[in-house]
Design brief:
15 strands, about 20% strand, 15 helices, alpha+beta, globular, Alpha-Beta Plaits, Pseudouridine synthase, 9-stranded mixed β-sheet, about 500 residues
Length: about 500
């Protein structure tokens, strides 16, 4: 049975009216992330450790002096720049694997690739060479130094009791340098002082809108989510592998073209009823492409070789083809990748949360007295009632069709991902900024502040400036050359 593909997220992902919280009207244009040093992010853990993006130890005197009880979990401070959090995790895991260790590495949140960042990671040692001491192995890797280009290091190893969960942090401290053309220090100071007074009058709170980062590197996560929910894994996975961003590197485009060719061969084998081994052998080919490139050549010198998927930042694509080649079942792939799947569903949730938040602020959607949060769209009664009432077009199909495989699969994956929530996840209407300050210069300003976990610094800064970035998150796949077909 065919299903028409319905993609309702056709407005601004981050509506401009949400950015007028402090004042209506034009905001000065500003440039963000002119260099790595202009964007510094430092994570603060739930137990109050601030992981500074420098070579200074963040351990307390008591932690240094007191003997620790060894566990299989070791926490380290990770400082990086020019690398994604996932890329850095891969590099750290590879170094430990070279020493004969099998580990799992967890962290509380992804940090910006273009920034200088400090954060905690926890290494769980699953196995290591007989007679080796995991703490000594980690200490040998601790080489703090001044970052140079695309670089990273670890330090401050500490025994801890368990892994890190996503979102398990107090918040992030930011130090941001913005270029503000045409404004001298006096003009910037006068302008910001007026805005800060209004922010203070709001008790330092601002609308907790999602930033465009929620839509992913290629700005297609919500499109992928709708495709998955309505049409199933086949359509969504094809999009994930073959649709890229216009500004991807030429090499990344070559990789996607090679993946698209393999996908076409997979579909041809599938449509003629070939054996599963033949069908999924094409995912093995895709795995090779993401490891070694279209011509099976890694980048870099022999002693610096990295998998291609790391270099071109395609971690989800690599996980997808690896699981498909292993399990030979796309439904099983979805079940094996709940975290990756959640990014697609999360982008849909973020879009409709932003639309709901806008209506709350303009008074067209009135929440019950005392309610200061909005449910995120997921297959839970409260969320379905809320969006069915205010945004019926948001619901990705008829949730009552329990017999349909796609919806059964969605229910299983969503239940697994949102298991800690009895009534489904929600998001507060407002976030509160703390430790705010700024220092203005001629055509530049340095802003420092802290935001709670889950809030977006670029959204906050956009309350003051019209950032030189595509903060509205327009889809890059409008006019795509194909329309996904429903699975039978």
């Amino acid at each position: 049975m065919s299903t028409q593909f319905y993609y309702p997220s056709d407005g601004d992902f981050l509506p401009k009216k949400l950015l007028s919280w402090l004042e209506e009207g034009d905001r000065p244009r500003a440039r963000l992330k002119a260099s790595h040093e202009d964007f510094v992010v430092e994570e603060e853990s739930l137990d109050g450790i601030r992981f500074t993006a420098d070579t200074v130890s963040n351990l307390t005197a008591a932690q240094i002096a007191n003997a620790q009880t060894p566990t299989r979990f070791i926490q380290v401070k990770v400082v990086k720049r020019g690398l994604t959090t996932g890329h850095t995790e891969h590099l750290l895991r590879s170094k430990l694997r070279d020493q004969g260790c099998e580990v799992r590495i967890t962290y509380a949140g992804n940090k910006d690739r273009t920034a200088e960042t400090g954060q905690g990671m926890r290494i769980e040692f699953k196995s290591y060479p007989e007679g080796a001491d995991p703490m000594e192995l980690v200490k040998k890797l601790c080489r703090p130094h001044k970052l140079n280009g695309r670089d990273w290091f670890i330090m401050d190893p500490l025994y801890v009791q368990g892994p890190l969960q996503l979102g398990a942090l107090k918040g992030n401290h930011f130090k941001i340098r913005l270029i503000v053309p045409g404004m001298n220090s006096q003009m910037i100071t006068s302008y910001l002082s007026e805005k800060v007074a209004k922010l203070k009058a709001h008790d330092w709170r601002f609308p907790n809108a999602y930033g465009k980062q929620r839509r992913g590197r290629c700005q297609t996560n919500d499109l992928l989510g709708y495709a998955f929910l309505q049409l199933g894994p086949l359509a969504a996975f094809r999009m994930c592998l073959t649709l890229g961003a216009p500004d991807e590197s030429d090499f990344a485009k070559e990789v996607r073209a090679a993946l698209a060719k393999c996908w076409q061969e997979f579909e041809e084998a599938r449509n003629r009823g070939a054996q599963l081994g033949e069908q999924f052998s094409h995912f093995e080919d895709m795995h090779q492409i993401l490891m070694y490139g279209p011509n099976r050549q890694r980048w870099g010198e022999d002693h610096q070789k990295e998998p291609v998927h790391v270099r071109v930042n395609m971690p989800i694509e690599f996980s997808l083809v690896t699981q498909a080649a292993t399990h030979r079942c796309l439904d099983e792939v979805a079940m094996k990748l709940p975290r990756e799947f959640s990014l697609w569903i999360g982008a849909i949730q973020a879009y409709w949360y932003n639309q709901s938040l806008l209506k709350v602020l303009d008074g067209s959607l009135i929440l019950p007295e005392g309610v200061n949060e909005i449910p995120l769209m997921v297959n839970k009664p409260r969320a379905i009632e809320f969006y069915g009432r205010y945004f019926p077009q948001a619901l990705p199909g008829d949730y009552n069709r329990k017999k349909q495989r796609v919806f059964r699969l969605y229910n299983r994956v969503a239940k697994r991902y949102f298991e800690p929530y009895s009534a489904g996840p929600t998001r507060a209407l407002f976030a509160q900024v703390s430790d705010f300050g700024f220092k203005a210069g001629n055509e530049e300003v340095v802003v420092e502040n802290m935001l709670p976990s889950g809030s977006f610094e670029t959204t906050f800064l956009s309350m003051f400036f019209d950032l030189d970035s595509d903060y509205n998150g327009k889809s890059t796949v409008e006019g795509a050359t194909f329309v996904p077909e429903a699975e039978e």
